[in-house]
Amino acid sequence: MKKINKNEIATFGENTRLVIGGREPDDYHGFVNPPVYHGSTVLAPTTRDLLDHTQRYAYGRRGTPTTDALEQALRAIDGSAGVVLCPSGLAAVSTALLSCLSAGDHLLMVDSAYGPTRHFCDGQLARFGIETTYYDPLIGEGIEALLRPNTKAVYLETPGSQSFEMQDVPLIAGIAHRHGATVLLDNTWATPLFFDAFGHGVDLMIQAGTKYIVGHSDAMFGAVSANRKAWPALKGFYGDAGLCAGPDDVYLAMRGLRTLGVRLRQHQESALRVAKWLAKRPEVLRVLHPALDGDPGHAIWKRDFKGSSGLFSIVLQPAPEAAVEAFLDGLKFFGLGYSWGGFESLAIPFDCSHYRTATTWNPGGPGVRLHIGLEDVEDLIADLDAGLARFRAARG
């Protein structure tokens, strides 16, 4: 097998890049996958090598062949200048924010952000003297009025967590850059396969790799990718903070990454079929899925995105809590659990009204978030059909 020049990788298709990125079989005796290096101490051949750091690896926390392989593979698909690997998605969020914010700075945070992201801002960033202002995800060019001289970062998440509002990323990024602010994006829902964050003006891209990168609900993992402007500060903070991801989780993330393309396309196809079926059901008030024609964010999704994933929400007709529980508790194929992105389908009830501050969440009925896994769609629809029958009966 001919050795591939690393400079060639960017010219290949995305599925090819997913398969070959970070792989160097010649370096590990021809084995297809890189070995898992468990280690802290790295021995130097001489005192001078030790003191001058002449070796590629000096200490396990600062990188191993295993972490290098995944970082290279992620760069091959997202086009970034550099990537850091974190022990969870939330760790990736906090790492990205702390790499570009200091005491006295101001942060603009989208009101539809992942709940633990808000908690980090309101707790830890406030403790460090960093002020957070939440803004409407649909603000568009109105973001300019919220920018201050000390606004150092603007954080986006599109579509919004649970509520699935679509943000105009290039518009907001352009305005933020004119004012000298760093633009951060949580790109977990679409992944770089379906949304090119750096091509749309983002400086720091965050992924909760626990979801689609790992893809099997068996590891905690996060990643932050940076463009050239943001990379030095991200790399410096990451090293100084002593962050690193465990070798076994890194290996599982690498294994999951190889099949991301085929899994994500199947999640997309199945989710769209289920979403279209649900949109016709009388028990469902609304389906929140930006890839559907009637969704308020569809135009932006169609303009900027290459696809959609398996996660979306529905708003049921007004009903007591017992009716929602009857719908969910009897499901056969939808587990009741947090997270998403694995091979299995999941469902959770949700209500954004108790934490939104820049917007009001009043959708007209109870919300349920669904992750459509890799089961047969016919089985999932039959399961939901029975669940909606229980909902009707309990609703009265």
Structural class: alpha/beta
- Percent helix range: 25-40%
Alpha-carbon Rg, integer: 22 Å
CATH class type of the largest domain:
Alpha Beta
Number of strands: 12
Counting DSSP H or I runs of 4 or more residues, the number of helices is 13
The CATH architecture designation of the largest domain is 3-Layer(aba) Sandwich
Oligomer: single chain
Major β-sheet strand ordering: 1-7-6-5-4-2-3
The unreliable regions are: none
What's the CATH H-level homologous superfamily of the largest domain? Type I PLP-dependent aspartate aminotransferase-like (Major domain)
Average predicted confidence as pLDDT: 96
Task: Provide a concise account of the structure shown.
This protein is α/β, with parallel strands linked by helices and 396 residues long.
Summary tags:
396 residues; alpha/beta; Aspartate Aminotransferase, domain 1; seven-stranded mixed beta sheet; 12 strands; 36% helix
Strand-helix topology:
Blueprint: H1 14-20, H2 47-52, H3 65-78, E1 82-86, H4 89-100, E2 106-110, H5 115-127, E3 131-135, E4 151-157, H6 169-178, E5 182-186, H7 191-194, E6 204-207, E7 222-226, H8 231-240, H9 247-258, H10 260-279, E8 284-288, H11 298-304, E9 311-316, H12 321-329, E10 334-335, E11 345-350, E12 367-371, H13 377-395
Parallel strand pairs: 2-3, 2-4, 4-5, 5-6, 10-11
Antiparallel strand pairs: 1-7, 6-7, 8-9, 9-12, 11-12
Helix pairs in contact: 1-3, 3-9, 4-5, 4-8, 12-13
